[in-house]
Design brief:
With 238 residues, the protein is α+β, with helices and mostly antiparallel strands. It is built from six helices and 15 strands.
Length: 238
């Protein structure tokens, strides 16, 4: 349905204030009309047909110069739980706790919300010398998300496939509680990496770099429950 290197750069190094310039692959462009963070395109297909969440995260890790692949992140760091059948019922995880199914599968891959993506990022960061910290930014307002972009911070964000209303045509029972769970069938996850007037820049792991109407995009984000993840410099604790 959906180079390992520096941990982060000071925003003053990432942000370039220009009146009129075409964004390059190494600059974040900020002016009175546009913010554009140059996230390299990373496609989920063919290997991860249902891996939009972990692919979007990987694209941001690559932007911060961590040399890790989408498959390594999916296979080794993403918390997953397969769905299974018992006594005529299908059971699976709470998407707030684990990815449901297998992102490599076209049929048996579903999704997760922000917490498993935060866990995947921070588990990966534990293997690195220079670290960022994944933050669950779910619940952020449109203005807060745009402020992240203003400061050179791209965002993993949950929407629907075509910005239409969410559909709940799937279901399973939660394996830990037995509670009936209605599942989204048009959920999608992308990287929000800029905006200009009434459009947003998006790295969509199914389509590449695209633009969407700003209001329609944030309406979809809100209808999907306001799920988002960012990476920030890890604060030192003395």
């Amino acid at each position: 349905l959906a180079n390992k290197g520096i941990s982060t750069l000071d925003s003053s190094l990432r942000l370039v204030t220009l009146e009129s310039v075409t964004p390059t692959s190494s600059q974040t462009i900020v002016n009175t009309n546009e913010v554009y963070i140059p996230i390299q395109t990373l496609m989920q297909e063919p290997e991860l047909p249902n891996g939009c969440e972990i692919v979007s995260l990987t694209a941001i890790l690559n932007y911060y110069e961590y040399d890790v692949s989408k498959l390594t992140m999916s296979d080794q760091f993403l918390p997953k739980q397969f769905l299974y059948k018992h006594s005529g019922r299908i059971y699976g995880p709470d998407p707030y706790k684990a990815y449901a199914g297998n992102p490599r599968s076209k049929i048996n891959g579903w999704y997760s919300f922000a917490p498993p993506i935060v866990e995947a990022a921070n588990t990966y960061m534990a293997t690195q010398k220079d670290k960022l910290k994944a933050i669950n930014a779910s619940g952020s307002s449109k203005e807060q998300l745009l402020s992240y972009l203003d400061n050179g911070i791209p965002i993993v964000i949950w929407i629907t496939l075509d910005l239409s209303s969410p559909t709940l045509d799937g279901h399973w029972y939660l394996s830990d509680t037995g509670e009936y769970y209605k599942a989204y069938t048009n959920l999608h996850v992308v990287v929000l990496n800029g905006y200009k007037e009434d459009v947003v820049h998006v790295m969509n792991p199914l389509k590449g770099q695209v633009q969407y109407n700003l209001d329609a995009f944030f309406n979809s984000y809100e209808e999907m429950g306001k799920h988002a993840v960012i990476l920030e410099k890890e604060e030192l604790v003395w």
